[in-house]
Protein backbone atom coordinates (compact mmCIF):
# COMPACT_ATOMS: atom_id res chain seq x y z
CA UNK A 1 0.00 0.00 0.00
CA UNK A 2 1.37 3.41 -0.91
CA UNK A 3 1.54 6.30 1.53
CA UNK A 4 -1.06 8.17 -0.56
CA UNK A 5 -3.44 5.20 -0.34
CA UNK A 6 -2.84 5.01 3.40
CA UNK A 7 -3.56 8.74 3.80
CA UNK A 8 -6.77 8.39 1.80
CA UNK A 9 -7.99 5.57 4.05
CA UNK A 10 -6.95 7.54 7.12
CA UNK A 11 -8.92 10.61 5.98
CA UNK A 12 -12.04 8.50 5.40
CA UNK A 13 -11.58 6.78 8.77
CA UNK A 14 -11.19 10.09 10.61
CA UNK A 15 -14.46 11.32 9.10
CA UNK A 16 -16.48 8.52 10.76
CA UNK A 17 -18.40 9.85 13.75
CA UNK A 18 -20.80 7.04 14.64
CA UNK A 19 -20.07 4.95 17.73
CA UNK A 20 -19.07 1.35 17.09
CA UNK A 21 -18.12 -1.72 19.10
CA UNK A 22 -14.70 -1.74 17.42
CA UNK A 23 -13.71 1.44 19.31
CA UNK A 24 -10.80 1.88 16.89
CA UNK A 25 -10.86 5.63 17.46
CA UNK A 26 -9.80 5.09 21.09
CA UNK A 27 -6.58 3.25 20.20
CA UNK A 28 -4.48 6.36 19.59
CA UNK A 29 -1.20 4.64 20.48
CA UNK A 30 -0.14 1.02 19.97
CA UNK A 31 -2.37 -1.03 22.24
CA UNK A 32 -2.73 -4.71 23.00
CA UNK A 33 -5.78 -5.96 21.11
CA UNK A 34 -8.46 -6.36 23.79
CA UNK A 35 -9.97 -9.78 24.39
CA UNK A 36 -13.45 -8.45 23.55
CA UNK A 37 -12.35 -6.82 20.28
CA UNK A 38 -14.89 -7.68 17.52
CA UNK A 39 -12.53 -9.56 15.17
CA UNK A 40 -15.46 -10.68 13.03
CA UNK A 41 -16.08 -7.04 12.05
CA UNK A 42 -12.59 -6.54 10.66
CA UNK A 43 -11.25 -7.05 7.15
CA UNK A 44 -7.75 -6.58 5.81
CA UNK A 45 -7.60 -3.79 3.21
CA UNK A 46 -3.85 -3.60 2.72
CA UNK A 47 -0.39 -4.13 4.06
CA UNK A 48 2.60 -1.92 4.79
CA UNK A 49 4.97 -4.87 4.38
CA UNK A 50 7.15 -3.85 1.46
CA UNK A 51 8.78 -7.19 0.65
CA UNK A 52 7.35 -10.36 2.22
CA UNK A 53 10.71 -12.12 1.68
CA UNK A 54 12.98 -9.39 3.00
CA UNK A 55 13.78 -8.55 6.60
CA UNK A 56 12.37 -5.09 7.32
CA UNK A 57 14.25 -2.69 9.55
CA UNK A 58 13.72 -2.48 13.28
CA UNK A 59 14.65 1.22 13.20
CA UNK A 60 11.90 3.46 14.54
CA UNK A 61 11.15 7.04 13.52
CA UNK A 62 10.75 9.49 16.42
CA UNK A 63 12.24 12.88 15.46
CA UNK A 64 10.43 14.72 18.25
CA UNK A 65 11.32 12.35 21.07
CA UNK A 66 8.13 10.28 20.99
CA UNK A 67 8.13 6.52 21.60
CA UNK A 68 6.09 3.67 20.15
CA UNK A 69 3.68 4.15 23.05
CA UNK A 70 3.06 7.85 22.36
CA UNK A 71 -0.35 8.86 21.03
CA UNK A 72 1.36 11.52 18.90
CA UNK A 73 4.10 9.25 17.53
CA UNK A 74 4.44 9.54 13.74
CA UNK A 75 3.07 6.78 11.56
CA UNK A 76 6.10 6.12 9.35
CA UNK A 77 5.24 3.21 7.02
CA UNK A 78 8.86 2.34 6.21
CA UNK A 79 9.90 2.15 9.87
CA UNK A 80 9.24 -0.31 12.69
CA UNK A 81 6.61 -1.44 13.61
CA UNK A 82 4.58 0.02 10.74
CA UNK A 83 6.66 -1.85 8.17
CA UNK A 84 5.21 -5.06 9.63
CA UNK A 85 1.61 -3.87 9.86
CA UNK A 86 -1.61 -4.76 8.12
CA UNK A 87 -4.28 -2.14 7.48
CA UNK A 88 -7.62 -3.28 8.85
CA UNK A 89 -11.07 -1.78 8.39
CA UNK A 90 -14.20 -2.28 10.45
CA UNK A 91 -17.02 -3.50 8.18
CA UNK A 92 -19.61 -1.91 10.48
CA UNK A 93 -18.37 1.69 10.80
CA UNK A 94 -15.55 1.95 8.26
CA UNK A 95 -12.82 3.05 10.68
CA UNK A 96 -9.30 1.86 9.89
CA UNK A 97 -6.48 0.70 12.12
CA UNK A 98 -2.98 -0.66 11.81
CA UNK A 99 -2.26 -4.06 13.26
CA UNK A 100 0.91 -6.07 13.79
CA UNK A 101 2.08 -8.89 16.02
CA UNK A 102 4.83 -8.13 18.52
CA UNK A 103 6.94 -11.25 18.96
CA UNK A 104 8.97 -11.34 22.14
CA UNK A 105 11.13 -14.08 23.57
CA UNK A 106 8.28 -16.09 25.08
CA UNK A 107 5.12 -14.51 23.74
CA UNK A 108 3.30 -12.99 20.83
CA UNK A 109 1.01 -10.03 21.29
CA UNK A 110 -1.30 -8.60 18.62
CA UNK A 111 -1.32 -4.79 18.72
CA UNK A 112 -3.59 -2.21 17.15
CA UNK A 113 -3.42 1.52 16.50
CA UNK A 114 -5.97 3.88 14.94
CA UNK A 115 -5.02 5.25 11.56
CA UNK A 116 -4.69 9.00 12.17
CA UNK A 117 -4.13 11.06 8.99
CA UNK A 118 -2.40 13.87 10.92
CA UNK A 119 0.40 11.52 11.97
CA UNK A 120 1.27 9.82 8.68
CA UNK A 121 4.72 10.82 7.43
CA UNK A 122 6.42 9.80 4.21
CA UNK A 123 10.09 9.37 5.12
CA UNK A 124 12.53 6.97 3.47
CA UNK A 125 13.59 3.74 5.12
CA UNK A 126 16.88 3.95 6.96
CA UNK A 127 19.94 2.50 5.24
List the helices and strands and how they pair.
Blueprint: H1 3-14, E1 31-32, E2 42-47, E3 86-90, E4 96-103, E5 108-114
Antiparallel strand pairs: 1-5, 2-3, 3-4, 4-5
What does this entry look like structurally?
It comes from Telluria mixta. This is 4Fe-4S ferredoxin-type domain-containing protein. It is a single chain. The chain has 127 residues and is mainly β. It has one domain (3-119). The chain has one helix at residues 3-14; strands spanning 31-32, 42-47, 86-90, 96-103, 108-114. It has a 5-stranded antiparallel sheet. A hairpin with a 4-residue loop joins strand 4 (96-103) and strand 5. The longest helix is centred in the first third of the chain and has 12 residues, at 3-14. The protein is globular.
Tell me briefly what this model is.
It contains one helix and five strands. The chain is mainly beta and 127 residues long.
Distance between the termini: 21 Å
**Total domain modules:** 1
- The value of Rg in angstroms is 14 Å
Average pLDDT, all residues: 94
- List the secondary-structure elements in sequence, H or E: HEEEEE
Low-confidence stretches: none
* Helical amount: under 10%
